[in-house]
Amino acid sequence: MADIAKLVEELSKLTVLEAAELATALEEEWGVSAAAAVAVAGPAAGGAAEAVEEKDEFDVILTGDGGKKIQVIKEVRAITGLGLTEAKGLVEGAPKPIKEGVNKAEAEEIKGKIEAAGGTVELK
Questions:
Q1: Is 76 helix (H, G, I), strand (E, B) or coil?
Q2: HEC states along 24-88?
Q3: Are 117 and 64 in contact (CB under 8 A)?
Q4: Less Cβ crowding at N or C end of the chain, within 10 Å?
Q5: Residue 80's closest CA among 55, 62, 56?
Q6: What pTM did the predictor assign?
Q7: Pick the residue with more confidence: 24 or 96?
Q8: Greatest CA separation found in the chain?
């Protein structure tokens, strides 16, 4: 049973795309359909499917200016459209959100820009 729990823990770390690829590979290897396995497993599989879902909205949190406050303030202004005073307050008050509820691509883009300017960012 410990091995099964370990396997379930590892599988729960998969993204939706990875889980779909795994299902396809298992169907090809064993000649069975994932739909049949879900029918047998019943409602218990629903909880596992929810755990595999990939997060689609992120909050971009500025955690520090990395000693390059002016460059980070400039980048925060460009990203948010804030005025100089507001951007300075955001950077000096870190950790603070730069943008909330953005998709993964935009969050990664913002993170890259802030880190290139010298700041540190966390995605939640």
A1: helix
A2: HHHHHHHCCCHHHHHHHHCCHHHHHHHHHCCCCCEEEEEEECCCCHHHHHHHHHHHHCCCHHHHH
A3: no
A4: N
A5: 62
A6: 0.55
A7: 96
A8: 63
The SS3 assignment for 64 reads strand
| CA-wise closest residue to 68 among 120, 9, 106, 122 | 120
- 53 Cβ contact partners less than 8 Å away, ≥ 6 residues apart: 16
What is the mean pLDDT of the segment spanning 64-78?
91
Beta bridge mates, 121: 62
Please measure the distance between the N-terminal and C-terminal CA atoms of the chain and give it in whole angstroms.
33
Sheet containing strand 96-102, strands side by side: 96-102, 58-64, 120-123
Statement: residue 33 has pLDDT above 70: no
Query: CA–CA separation, 77 vs 119, rounded Å?
Result: 13
